[in-house]
Amino acid sequence: MGRSASHACRYPTSFSLRPPLKMIREHKVPTIFSHVAVPLALGFGLGRGAVPTRLLVAGVVAAALPDLDVLAFRLNVAYSHALGHRGFSHSLVFALALALLALAWAPSLRSSRFAAFIFLGLAAVSHPLLDMFTNGGLGVALWWPWSAERFFAPWPVIEVSPLSLHRLFSVRGVAVIKSELLWVCLPAVVVGFALLALRASSPTSRCWGGCTIKPRSLPELEP
Ligand SMILES: [Zn+2]
């Protein structure tokens, strides 16, 4: 596991009475585009047979959902609190909960339960894992509720992004976008096309989503 952020935390560990707006402006995240790149690449590579449109949309939502925790700043919850940004919503337990919801609602997602669980789980867990590779903010509480410790990956290669759009479209924003193209979008495209090639070469590719393989009809014998 990478370096922990808890020892270097300069934020209070409980509810803060500090005005939250400054923290909202200053907190750092990968852009939303990076997070949704993962389910989009998987959906592209696996095809609609395995990832129907509804499941793909659910995956995109699951990949972006954890950052709704920035609303905690509005409620004066400290960054480093379990309910704060990159807290419980960035844990493996949270990703598992989303995957289990997808499993339960698989019929509504037009998917097999297995495909819904795996795809949603991968989409959801990709969010905190990507955040761990950023070089700013606090780490993620990956092991919540067993540990409140915040973690970074050993190689924080992704430039953190300012949340506000006007800051994103600046010189700093260009550096962020270049970093995300290199470290997130490019690998996602490679994975997507690799899955596409694998699917094209697989005789059972149409059944990756859990359908049944129909046996080939035998030629009728002459009487
Ligand atoms: Zn996040």
Could you walk me through the main structural features you see in this protein, from its secondary elements to its overall organization?
The protein is mainly alpha-helical and 223 residues long. Helix content is 48%, strand content 2%. The protein starts with 20 loop residues before the first helix and ends in a 23-residue tail after the last helix. About 10% of the residues have low confidence. Zinc ion binds next to α6.
Question: What's the main sheet like?
Answer: 2 strands, antiparallel
Please trace the helix and strand order, writing H or E for each element: HEHHHHHEHH
Helix/strand/pairing class, anyone? mainly alpha
Distinct helical segment count? 8
Structural Rg: 21 Å
Q: Span from first to last CA? A: 70 Å
Q: How does the overall form come out from the CA principal axes?
A: globular
Strand line-up in the sheet with most strands? 1-2
Helix share bin: 40-55%
Domains counted in the coordinates: how many?
1
Low-confidence segments, given as residue ranges, are 5-27
Mean residue pLDDT:
81
List the helices and strands and how they pair.
Elements (H helix, E strand, L loop, with lengths): L20 H6 L1 E2 L2 H19 L2 H12 L6 H4 L17 H13 L8 H20 L28 E2 L2 H4 L2 H30 L23
Antiparallel strand pairs: 1-2
Helix pairs in contact: 2-3, 2-6, 2-8, 3-6, 5-6
Zinc ion binds next to helix 6.
